[in-house]
Amino acid sequence: MPAHSASVLPPAPAAPRAGAVSLGLSFDQVEKRFGPLSVLRNVTFQVAAGEFAILLGANGSGKTTLLRLAALLAQPTRGTVRWEGIPAGLGPQGNDCAGYLGHLSQLYDELTALENLQFFARLYRLPFSAEELRTRLASAGLDSWGGTLVRAFSRGMRQRLALVRVFLHSPSLLLLDEPSAGLDTPGIDWLAGILTGLRDSACTVLMSTHGDSPLTAFASRVMWLAGGKLAGDAQADIPSALRQADIAIRQDRGGVR
Amino acid sequence: MRGFGNVAGAGVVAALLGVAGYAVFFVAPQEVSMGDIQRIFYVHVASAWTSFVAFFLVFLANIAYLWRRQLHWDWLAVSAAEVGVAFCSVVLVTGPLWAKPVWGIWWTWDARLTSTFVLWLLYVSYLLLRSLLPDPARRATISAVFGIFTFLDVPLVYMSIRWFRTQHPQPVIAGGEGSGLDAVMWQVFLVMWTALLALMARLVWQRYRLESLRHQVDELSFGLRAG
Amino acid sequence: MSTKSPAAVAWTLPPAALAIFLRELRAEFRTRELLNTTVVFVLIIVVMFSFSLNPSAQQAREFGPGLLWLAFLFAGSLMLQPAFTRELASDTISSLRMAPIDPSAILFGKVAANFFFLTFAEWLMLPVFGVLFNVPVWPVVGPLAMVLGLGTLGVCVAGTAFSAMTAQARLRELLLPLLLLPFLAPVLVAAVDATSGLFAEVPELRFTPLKILAAFDVIFLTAAWLLFENLIEE
């Protein structure tokens, strides 16, 4: 991937801090229903600490729901979701180990980019000065936009800022829902650089993406959803797994609905 | 409760209501100033007390649901709420029916009637909130919190309105604060209240079963589509 | 990475609530959308009531407190709706929930912010009200601040909590005022009574309504604190 001047790699800001607790993720017979509508059924898997897993599936296959369940933002209708490595039952508020990036920006439109980062740094009790935050913005190519309201940002710029935000507290468990959505080629290069660092670190990643995305190159594990179930889970021979997943996804009629 | 048990239950309620009706018309003495129309008091006030019991049931069911997260507590909550609103409506209808012959006006904003009206509005809005929340789990959780809030508000409603009325007195419908009840009247009242409580219990039970059946139907149709 | 006991989580509440409160203030003072709309709406209600009731000077003084509080309640119930629906547009609520803060901080930060905005609008309106209804506001401004404070706090606690409840309901813009107004009956009655006492010929500070307002505030702040987490789960 060609280097781009705007994507100067920061010194692995996304990598977990030294001595950080490595987290695993486990799903045990998880079912999620919204009224009569079933989105996920009997989903069971464990992602070990440090693994880089990608999640594939057709639109509407339940990837977003699965990631929200993994973030403990949503409660399963049946079954349990656990973060392995920390005491159970506390959820996100009891620790700062996990980061979640969803479809929406999770940013405040009426604040500037810098103000958004300052707000979240404050909630996470991170001792970052304004200078440090500006450096992070610069690493994402947003250095001249620090004082602009997020309302004025393009889709790609919002995605970059959202990524800076999710990496801000150096989580050791990352749940990313289509992180490259809206990014242009330099943006994807920049993201790829960060993911390289994450793959080589103790960070656990579960990332949903599309089968033809260049980001699949990072995977040490491929999982795919079809018919509301975990139709496949491969930890070896990734290229072949990707082909299998592609077939399964094309055949997915929307499954249990 | 199938078959015999069901009919027996209905029979008990009917019998109690029959006894209460007889007591109201033939056992209770005629009231001196208002005449026969006063007999409405037995239904009016007993309905009010019955609706309180129903709303207290809603409160307990709400707490139980938030604690245990078992859907049948939600079924109990909605059943008790609907029956409570029904009895509350009886209070609001019998009030004017009593007031018009006695006072010549349909309505006064006396403390108890006003408070009951607000109570009615509160639980109607509970039911309305439920009807606008489509997902069953969210509906149960959110309405449980709202239900707890509502129940905690009820004493404040009564206190504030009663205070206001001492500042700005109006004609009182159901007898003033100090008016005592003749011993026989009191007994008749208790009989009527018992009958209404039995009726309430039966209505709540029927409504609960209906909700349970609805849930089973949903589950079955979901299973059919999935399988 | 730090993990916390539940007690330690509770300690995060004040600073997190403060951070959220300041953020709400910053966002609102930048656009002033809610403030402007609320102030204008209160004014409109007061004027409309005057048209329809056409009170004499004496009646204006009698009905004034009632109209004032009705205006505050109606305006408040509309102003409080965005408290949580605004967090849904960009899913910022999820980023708040993922942060290592006590979830009640979200509630208290917003209650504090809404209290600030509604109080701001009320005090802007008071001189106008004093003029339109021939009521001497200035001599009783101290006790009046107490009544306004206790009453507005009740409105904001209930309104912010109900905003969270209705955020995902259908017809939520209609539903919030519908749920809120009967619920606030004790606040309306007590606040109007206390305000009437202050605007009487011989101003008096009535303690019973103040106690009712205080009780309302304490009960529902506590209930909201205990139950809030249920409202933002999925």
Provide an overview of this structure.
The complex is a heterotrimer of chains A (257), B (227) and C (234). Chain A has 257 residues and is an alpha/beta fold. Chain A has 6 helices and 9 strands. In chain A, the strands form 2 sheets. Chain A has a 6-stranded mixed beta sheet, with helices on both faces. In chain A, strands 2-1-4 form a 3-stranded antiparallel beta sheet, covered by helices on one side. The model of chain B has no long low-confidence stretch (mean pLDDT 86). Helices cover 81% and strands 0% of the residues of chain B. Chain C contains 11 helices and no strands. Chains in contact: A-B, A-C, B-C. The interface between A and B is small, with 8 and 9 residues.
Q: Can you tell me the overall shape of chain B?
A: globular
Q: Proportion of β residues of chain A?
A: 15-25%
Q: Give the strand tally of chain A.
A: 9
Order of helices and strands of chain B: HHHHHH
Distance between the termini of chain A: 41 Å
Oligomer: heterotrimer
- Placed side by side, the strands forming the largest sheet of chain A appear as 5-6-7-3-8-9
Contiguous helical run count of chain B: 6
Distance linking N and C termini of chain B? 31 Å
Helix-strand blueprint:
The complex is a heterotrimer of chains A (257), B (227) and C (234).
Chain A: E1 24-34, E2 37-47, E3 52-57, H1 63-70, E4 78-84, E5 98-101, H2 113-123, H3 130-139, H4 155-167, E6 173-177, H5 185-199, E7 204-208, E8 221-226, E9 229-234, H6 238-251
Parallel strand pairs in A: 3-7, 3-8, 5-6, 6-7
Antiparallel strand pairs in A: 1-2, 1-4, 8-9
Helix pairs in contact in A: 2-3
Chain B: H1 3-27, H2 40-68, H3 71-103, H4 111-131, H5 136-167, H6 183-226
Chain C: H1 6-11, H2 13-31, H3 33-53, H4 57-79, H5 82-89, H6 92-98, H7 104-132, H8 141-166, H9 172-183, H10 185-199, H11 207-232
Helix pairs in contact in C: 2-7, 3-4, 3-7, 4-7, 4-8, 4-9, 4-10, 7-8, 8-9, 8-10, 8-11, 10-11
What's a quick, concise take on this entry?
With 257 residues, chain A is an alpha/beta fold. Chain A contains six helices and nine strands. Chain A is 28% helix and 24% strand.
Write a concise keyword list for the protein shown above.
heterotrimer, A: alpha/beta, Rossmann fold, 6-stranded mixed beta sheet, 28% helix, disordered N terminus, C: 234 residues, mainly alpha
